[in-house]
Design brief:
Layout (H helix, E strand, L loop, with lengths): L1 E3 L14 E3 L8 E8 L2 E8 L8 E3 L11 E3 L17 E4 L15 E4 L9 E3 L2 E9 H6 L1 E9 L4 E9 L8 E4 L15 E8 L6 H13 L2
Parallel strand pairs: 10-14
Antiparallel strand pairs: 1-6, 2-5, 3-4, 7-8, 9-10, 11-12, 13-14
Pfam family, one: DnaJ_C
InterPro entries: DnaJ_C, HSP40/DnaJ_pept-bd, HSP_DnaJ_Cys-rich_dom, HSP_DnaJ_Cys-rich_dom_sf
GO biological process, one term: protein refolding
């Protein structure tokens, strides 16, 4: 953000005597231009082009701010992000914006929120989706797998055991209630969906091949 220059105390001048009355507008900050027309004299008033409407000009500019009266300031601040904040939301941080002049009230800072997915969770609204691989044997006969989920009591990512029924097909979704994202406006949370992908091994041993052949024969 920009704040008043400490070197010149926000005047923009090397010293106070360098600030003089604008010779063009005589300190009014406005200039008048008269033109004649068939209807009479037309007077147009506008901001002075020399002093930019301030009524003053600087003969010797501050060497730090070069007459701009303000300098950039970097400041680290802590911002509270509400649970369930949505993509594209703008959060207002009061008093963290520009300070245009000495004794001026600071403006506000608006932060645009952009939410990115990670390797464990994909967010869709308030629901979370987690693609998970399981082996073909577990898909056929069933079993248990461990999946990542959100533990709101401990405020961390943890593992949870998920039962897989026999005969699970690729793309099957298993829902874990209330393990999604908190609603930003209201109570409750979304759900988490575990999307199953069945891994087919690229290489198998001779023994495994024999067993699979027997399995195929049994299914005839």
């Amino acid at each position: 953000r920009y704040t008043p220059c400490d070197e010149c105390e926000g005047t923009g001048a090397e010293d106070p005597s360098s600030v003089i009355t604008c010779p063009e507008c005589q300190g009014t900050g406005r200039i008048r231009k008269m033109t004649q027309s068939g209807f009479g004299t037309i007077i147009r008033e506008s901001a002075c082009y020399v002093c930019k409407g301030t009524g003053q000009v600087i003969e010797k500019k501050c060497k730090v701010c070069n007459g701009s009266k303000v300098v950039p300031e970097e400041k680290m601040i802590h911002v509270n992000i509400p649970p369930g904040v949505e993509n594209g939301v703008h959060l207002k941080v009061q008093g963290a914006g520009h300070v245009p002049s000495v004794n001026a009230i600071p403006g506000d800072l608006y932060l645009g929120i952009r939410i990115t997915n990670n390797e464990k969770f994909i967010r869709r609204g308030n629901d979370l989706y987690t693609p998970t691989n399981i082996d073909i044997v577990t898909a056929i006969i069933g079993g248990k797998i461990k999946v990542y989920t959100l533990d709101y009591k401990e405020n961390k990512i943890t593992e949870k055991e998920l039962p897989i029924p026999a005969g699970t097909q690729p793309g099957t979704e298993f829902r874990i209630k209330n393990r999604g994202v908190s609603y930003m406006r209201g109570r409750g949370r979304g759900d988490q969906y575990i999307i199953v992908n069945i891994e087919i091994p690229k290489k198998i041993s001779e023994k495994q091949k024999e067993l699979l052949v027997k399995f195929r024969e049994l299914n005839k």
